[in-house]
């Protein structure tokens, strides 16, 4: 599907200067290489790959839909089975397994609704899309619709229920985003195409054989070029197939250009050799004459001539090296931003240290509107060499007391450097000639004829101009003009904006104590001095409800209530952030919601009244223990008020999801008139003050910290299971400081952030969090490891957030605790 046009592309290029050849045209007598490739490649790949890939993709999508539709149908049927009549009318008890089934597609968002044709919405999300002209049916109906900004797959299934007032149709609608379906379809497609790829490889072998046979005429070209001498750049003389005529022409044109370049190089080398040989021969002649001198006066004269000739040879060598260096840098060195004013000042200061320039009046002036000092894109080394050559030429060819003016003119569009002297100048007719190599007007000044050629080469490599003219004092005026690097363009690409160091205020809403998060906040602000965190505390339920009303007011949301956090993210109020830090699979969802702490639910107890060996080791035994000591423990057991504590409601509902033991525990807590509290800290303080003997399902991190600080508080883990919650964080979809928010979440999950969490009071990082409990209950449990049961971020967390199910759970809980409804 992709190979055919790629392999055909070079053949098309060969005829780019001509109209495309007709495959059936044999008037030229050339064999059609394209015809062979088309017949083999079209038959082997175009039809096979395209048709089979299309069929495989269609099959993969259908198979994926059928697989996940079964999950939707199973979940809807399990909910329909829990619909019934009550004294108040129709009711439904959403089973935990229903949303857990849909949650098997881990990263998909889930919405549901239960409706009746008489009462309308019973529970769930209002406003889910429905198919036109839907008629209630016991058979599931599947359809795709856009909802909450994403494509969802919906199932709609109905059931007829007989009530006192007559039959009523109740339908269940569940929507699931298509992330898992698409991933499975892609996996099936890749697996199917893998087999097709194997067949394609076999086909490629045949194509390779066909091409090899078709390209045999090219072997003669290879043989011709392989056996040639390096100096043989004559054109190829072959009778090739018509498809490669353009290739032969291109090779011959390249050889012609290569021959021309070699001729130029040979000419330059010959000129260099001639100039060097002449200079050295003259030097040798002067030294020979000096050796034959018959008087001291004649010897001194010959030595002065030899010295002058040596100076000329030295300058010639330096200029040749400079010319080679400038040519090389023009081809290989990238241009960078340069301010010419400081460059020129540094060069003049360096040259003025030469004693030979003491009689020279050298002036430097800067004019123009560009306050940046002449900013251009250039190579500083080449520019210094060019300016040095111009000044040295002015000194060498001018009078002993010369006046040299250097003027830097900085305008918005271009930058000019003008160097003028009071020397004899150059005739206008020679302006063009002196720019050529080895052209010198005055042999007496030891000139090499390369200085102005080097300057011209530098100007060309900088997209500039080199202009010669007559100076005001009668000498030569050499002008270098370069395009200016605009100040606005420079500031946009290179300079920092004015507000680069402006303080960014990152708004973090959290249901975690500020004191516990302080080390992380301080560490993040230290690592990011331009970001200031505005940290605001809430209770878990309050945080959920407030953010739901205004999702634009916070950038990052942190809470221990995993179900409430999942609900917000499932509604589409978060956005993804990708982190390289590995997290447990249970603590991350859709790259949008991240757990960052390890928080087991533990039993805190009074060490003054009980020894750990006296305590029950399982939830069943604890319920029995409370019943047996009902009188002794009246009012001395505490737990969360699940009506106002999000984390308390999460632990209570997750206990209920583990089985019937939760009912026994709730009944036992009611028997001892358990007291309810808002939070863990209050319960731990009550144990320390002797008001409570036990606190059930409190946060392990807070309990461990309190136990270390106060020996009156003990902490115990159960042998059967210990629920583990993770404080979670997500970035608001409407975050105003998105970049800073991503930095903070990544820092929170990083090794450094997790280390800072471990130093905070009552915080346990999620990475190796269970290590903090290794020495707890030592000798109490026969197991080598505790039975930690992490609460997974999945659609199952939505079960007990259902309006009817939540109300039924709270009613039963209040009844067990003999509490009045709030």
From TrEMBL:
Q: Which InterPro entries match?
A: 2CSK_N, HATPase_C_sf, HATPase_dom, His_kinase_dom, HisK_dim/P_dom, HisK_dim/P_sf, Sig_transdc_His_kin-like_C, TCS_sensor_his_kinase
Any one Pfam family here would be HATPase_c
List the signal peptide residues: none
Membrane-traversing stretches:
37-60, 188-211
Q: What is its EC number?
A: 2.7.13.3
Show where the Histidine kinase domain sits.
271-486
Supply the alphabetized keyword list.
Kinase, Membrane, Phosphoprotein, Transferase, Transmembrane, Transmembrane helix
Q: What class of enzyme is it?
A: transferase
- Its principal location? membrane
Location comes to: Membrane
Q: Which reaction does it catalyse?
A: ATP + protein L-histidine = ADP + protein N-phospho-L-histidine
The protein's name in its UniProt record: histidine kinase
């Amino acid at each position: 599907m992709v190979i055919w046009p790629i392999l055909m592309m070079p053949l098309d290029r060969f005829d780019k200067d001509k109209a495309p050849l007709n495959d059936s045209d044999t008037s030229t007598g050339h064999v059609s290489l394209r015809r062979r490739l088309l017949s083999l490649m079209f038959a082997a790949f175009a039809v096979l790959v395209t048709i089979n890939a299309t069929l495989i993709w269609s099959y993969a999508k259908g198979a994926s839909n059928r697989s996940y539709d079964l999950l939707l149908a199973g979940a809807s049927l399990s909910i329909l089975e829990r619909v019934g009549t009550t004294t108040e009318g129709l009711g439904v008890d959403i089973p935990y397994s229903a949303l857990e089934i849909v949650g098997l597609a881990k990263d998909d968002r889930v919405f549901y609704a239960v409706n009746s044709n008489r009462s309308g919405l019973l529970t769930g999300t209002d406003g889910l899309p429905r198919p036109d002209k839907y008629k209630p049916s016991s058979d599931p109906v599947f359809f795709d619709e856009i909802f909450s900004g994403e494509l969802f797959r919906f199932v709609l299934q109905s059931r007829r229920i007989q009530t006192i007032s007559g039959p009523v149709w109740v339908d269940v609608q569940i929507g699931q985003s298509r992330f898992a379906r698409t991933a499975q379809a892609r996996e099936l497609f890749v697996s199917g195409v893998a087999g097709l790829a194997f067949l394609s490889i076999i086909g490629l072998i045949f194509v390779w054989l066909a091409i090899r046979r078709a390209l045999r005429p090219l072997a003669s070209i290879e043989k011709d070029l392989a056996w040639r001498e390096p100096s043989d750049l004559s054109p190829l003389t072959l009778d090739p197939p018509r498809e490669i005529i353009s290739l032969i022409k291109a090779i011959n044109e390249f050889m012609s250009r290569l021959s021309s370049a070699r001729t130029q190089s040979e000419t330059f080398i010959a000129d260099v050799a001639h100039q060097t040989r002449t200079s050295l021969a003259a030097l040798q002649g002067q030294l020979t004459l000096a050796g034959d001198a018959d008087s001291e006066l004649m010897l001194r004269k010959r030595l002065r001539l030899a010295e002058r000739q040596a100076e000329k040879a030295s300058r010639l060598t330096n200029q040749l090296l400079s010319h080679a260096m400038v040519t090389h840098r023009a081809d290989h060195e990238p241009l960078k931003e340069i301010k010419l004013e400081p460059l020129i000042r540094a060069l003049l200061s360096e040259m003025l240290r030469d004693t030979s320039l003491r009689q020279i009046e050298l002036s430097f002036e800067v004019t123009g509107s560009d306050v940046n000092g002449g900013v251009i894109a250039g190579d500083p080394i080449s520019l210094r060499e060019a300016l040095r050559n111009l000044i040295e030429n002015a000194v060498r060819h001018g009078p002993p007391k010369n006046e040299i003016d250097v003027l830097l003119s900085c305008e918005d569009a271009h930058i000019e450097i003008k160097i003028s002297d009071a020397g004899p100048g150059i005739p206008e007719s020679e302006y063009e000639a002196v720019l050529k190599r080895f052209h010198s007007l005055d042999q007496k000044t030891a000139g090499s004829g390369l200085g102005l050629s080097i300057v011209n080469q530098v100007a060309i490599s900088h997209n500039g101009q080199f202009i010669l003219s007559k100076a005001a004092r009668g000498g030569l005026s050499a002008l270098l003009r370069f395009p200016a690097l605009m100040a606005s363009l420079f500031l946009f690409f290179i300079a920092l904006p004015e507000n680069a160091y402006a303080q960014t205020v990152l708004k973090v809403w959290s249901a975690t104590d500020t004191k516990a998060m302080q080390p992380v906040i301080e560490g993040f602000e230290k690592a990011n001095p331009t970001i200031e965190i505005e940290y605001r505390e809430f209770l878990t339920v309050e945080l959920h409800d407030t953010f739901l009303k205004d999702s634009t007011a916070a950038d990052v949301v942190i809470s221990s209530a995993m179900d409430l956090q999942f609900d917000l993210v499932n509604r589409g109020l978060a956005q993804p952030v990708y982190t390289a830090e590995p997290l447990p699979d249970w603590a991350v969802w859709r790259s949008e919601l991240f757990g960052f702490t390890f928080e087991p639910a533990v039993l805190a107890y009074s060490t003054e009244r009980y020894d750990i060996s006296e305590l029950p080791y399982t939830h069943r035994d604890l319920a029995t223990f409370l019943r047996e000591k009902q009188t002794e423990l009246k009012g001395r057991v505490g737990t969360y008020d699940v009506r106002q504590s999000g984390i308390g409601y999460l632990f209570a509902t997750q206990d209920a999801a583990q089985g019937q033991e939760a009912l026994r525990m709730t009944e036992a807590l009611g028997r001892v008139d358990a007291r309810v509290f808002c939070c863990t800290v209050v319960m731990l303080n009550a144990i320390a003050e002797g008001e409570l003997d036990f606190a059930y399902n409190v946060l392990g991190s807070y309990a461990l910290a309190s136990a270390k600080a106060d020996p009156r508080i003990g902490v115990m883990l159960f042998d059967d299971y210990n629920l583990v919650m993770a404080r979670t964080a997500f970035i608001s979809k409407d975050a105003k400081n998105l970049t800073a928010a991503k930095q903070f979440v990544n820092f929170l999950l990083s090794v450094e952030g997790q280390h800072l969490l471990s130093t905070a009071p009552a915080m346990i990082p999620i990475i190796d969090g269970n290590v903090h409990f290794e020495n707890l209950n030592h000798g109490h449990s026969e197991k080598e490891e505790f039975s930690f049961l992490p609460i997974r971020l999945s659609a199952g967390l939505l079960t007990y957030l259902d309006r009817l199910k939540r109300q039924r759970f709270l009613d039963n809980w209040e009844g067990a605790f003999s509490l009045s409804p709030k």
